[in-house]
Write a structure and sequence with these properties.
There is one protein chain. The chain folds into 2 domains: 247 residues, TIM Barrel; 67 residues. The protein starts with 8 loop residues before the first strand and ends with a helix. Strand 7, helix 8 and strand 8 form a beta-alpha-beta unit. The strands form 2 sheets. An 8-stranded parallel barrel has the order 3-4-5-6-7-8-9-10, surrounded by 7 helices. Strands 1-2 form a two-stranded antiparallel sheet. It has 336 residues and is α/β, with parallel strands linked by helices. The longest helix has 27 residues. The chain binds flavin mononucleotide. Flavin mononucleotide (FMN) binds next to strand 4.
């Protein structure tokens, strides 16, 4: 039977309404970015990575901001599950953090064993876990025990190019720690996010594992993404950089194409993000936080360097909103 990205599937006993997933994105994947992805159809959304130590030691911002799940996230789109991604190398700390994540209302926990950033790897977390499968298994078991939730793990092909220890670690995580699924990013940690992912290796992992495999990496363009789904036989695909400021990609992948958004739709969505950031952080912090979001929308609209500079310089939300509105031909002609 022909497989479709619109089909539902089961992950750790939970029904996921389709096969298009929002990736964990550090410093970005908060509740409103997840909500946005869901509004455009994402079947499963994963939070930005959160430190298990920060949760365990009760860091206030971590608990109130990074673990915040908004009630609208539940209702939006097809109502798929919400996963919180944790990182950390200490099983005891992970057990305690996972319990807190379950209390915060997560449906699933994803463990980061793929982060290539030295600050994370030097603590033994992220992609460093590939060098220490016993700890990886202990951490995954602890997350499941502490939370009572299904646990998935996101990992890479290897630490160095041309290797594939990620495949063996994934097998151990499934067989020895009972993880419910694996997200596989078939690049080495050394190349970070560069180069073409090894989709043949992803297909090999799919064949070897008795649990769902979600494939991450290189997910740009609806046609290519559907090709990866077919080529690897994976259970689901995960959108990351391709979806930054581009939630339309979810709808396009699910609908088998679909139009690009109009200028008015992009501007409207950009203001939606502005409003949600204010709701999340208050106007003063939102101004700074949003500076990383603006370039995505500016690029999408084909706007100039001058607009970029104006947005980065704007010191209040109202100033940022004025710049956005000045780009709308309808609004700016009405104001003239
Ligand atoms: C800005 C940024 C932040 C990321 N943060 C995380 C993270 O918190 N956890 C994680 O597992 N992967 C993270 N990743 C990796 C992505 O989830 C994804 O695996 C990677 O970008 C490859 O997909 P792509 O080539 O389609 O972008 C991040 C990537 C980017 C670009």
């Amino acid at each position: 039977m022909e497989r479709s990205l619109q089909d539902s599937w089961i992950l750790g006993g939970l029904t996921v309404p389709n096969r298009v997933v929002l990736a964990p994105l550090a410093g970005i994947g908060n509740w409103f970015v997840r909500l946005q992805a869901k509004r455009f159809g994402a079947g499963l959304v994963v939070s930005e990575m959160v430190s298990s130590f920060a949760i365990h030691y009760g860091n206030e911002k971590t608990l109130t901001e990074l673990l915040r799940i908004h009630p609208d996230e539940r209702a939006a789109g097809s109502g798929g599950p919400i996963s919180i991604q944790l990182f950390g190398h200490d099983p005891g700390v992970m057990r305690s953090a996972a319990a807190t994540v379950a209390e915060a209302g997560a449906d699933l926990i994803d463990l980061n064993m793929g982060c290539p950033v030295p600050k994370v790897m030097k603590t033994g977390a992220g992609a460093a876990m590939l060098k220490d499968p016993d700890t990886a298994v202990a951490v995954a078991r602890a997350a499941a025990e502490g939370s009572g939730l299904p646990v998935t793990v996101k990992l890479r092909a290897s630490n160095l190019p041309g290797q594939m220890e990620g495949v063996e670690v994934a097998e151990r995580l499934v067989h020895d720690a009972g993880v419910a699924g694996i997200t596989f990013h078939p690049r080495s940690a050394a190349v970070r996010h560069k180069g073409t992912p090894d989709y043949d290796l992803a297909a090999t992992l799919v064949e070897r594992l008795p649990v769902p495999v979600i494939v991450s990496g290189g997910m740009h363009g609806a046609e290519h993404i559907r090709w990866v789904f077919d080529h690897t036989g994976c259970e689901a695909v995960m959108l990351a950089r391709g979806a930054l400021g581009n939630p339309w990609l979810f709808a396009q992948v699910l609908d088998g194409g679909g139009p690009e958004p109009s200028r008015g739709q992009v501007l409207e969505e950009w203001e939606w993000v502005l409003d949600r950031a204010v709701e999340h952080l208050g106007p003063d912090r939102a101004v700074r936080y949003l500076r990383k979001f603006h370039p995505w929308y500016i690029e999408r609209l084909g706007e100039s360097r001058a607009v970029q500079d104006a947005m980065q310089r704007a010191e209040s939300i109202e100033d940022q909103r004025t710049v956005i509105r000045s780009l709308d031909p309808v609004l700016s002609s009405a104001a003239a």
